[in-house]
Amino acid sequence: MISIKSEREIELMRYAGHINFLTHEELKKYIKPGITTETLDKIAHDFILKNDCIPSCLGYENYPKSICVSINDEVVHGIPSKRKLRNGDVVSIDFCVGYKGYHSDASRTYVVGNVRREVQDLVENTRLALYEGLRKVRAGAKIGDISHAIEDFAHKKGLSVVEDLVGHGVGSTIHEEPDVPNFGEEGKGYTLKEGMTIAIEPMLNLGSKNVCLIDKDDWTIVTEDESLSAHFEHTVLVTKDGYEILTGE
Ligand code: MF3
Ligand code: CO
């Protein structure tokens, strides 16, 4: 069942989304060589609590931290640790914020210091792929319209699309129906309706699209060929004529 949110629920998600945005803005200041990913986790954790919200990744299916920090060939769900960011790293930061039982989910990818042109392009094109998908969102459009727009853009830029992980509905839980794949056919899938809230999250790789789970922590997903990966995500509300980004400004 795909839920349609009431005006009250949307208001709660707007706040959860706004605090998600502000937390990302806060973290951005600390993305520098030498900082540990655990420190980033603590900064986010404290900031979210200070704003009357909860870090909803913490404890979700026993996830041990408040944010996910995924570096280089790590695609998503990297667990914060004593690992330090280094010059040249590609780092994605992804987390959920909850307010009075409603959630927001957003991710951004940064480069640390200097990287080669190809890497800069990977990150920028993954961000643009998210916006290509977003532009398709409005009541009456199909999930496949979003999926296809992202896939088409990624392939034009020579990037591969991770297929094993997908975007999703968001609301009173982090992951709701429907799935929002980053590949697919226009005109296919569920019809979007006013009041649905979905997270769109392209994960694009420089090399192979294949990913696998690291056995040792049972969370971190990496590219099979160890190529670099980037990830951007927004939670959006479907409106009559388009969309409202809940995790933006
Ligand atoms: N944006 C991530 C996702 O949709 C956040 C999940 S929370 C975690 O999978 F606990 F699984 F990390
Ligand atoms: Co998500």
Features:
binds 2-amino-4-trifluoromethylsulfanyl-butyric acid; four-stranded antiparallel beta sheet; Creatine Amidinohydrolase; 249 residues; binds cobalt (II) ion; five-stranded antiparallel beta sheet; alpha+beta
Description:
- The protein is of the alpha+beta class and 249 residues long.
- It has a single domain, classed as Creatinase/methionine aminopeptidase superfamily (Creatine Amidinohydrolase).
- Helices cover 27% and strands 25% of the residues.
- It contains four helices and 15 strands.
- The strands form four sheets. Strands 8-7-9-14-15 form a five-stranded antiparallel beta sheet.
- Helix 3 runs antiparallel to helix 4.
- The longest helix has 22 residues.
- The chain is globular.
- The model has no long low-confidence stretch (mean pLDDT 98).
- The site of cobalt (II) ion has 5 residues, from loops.
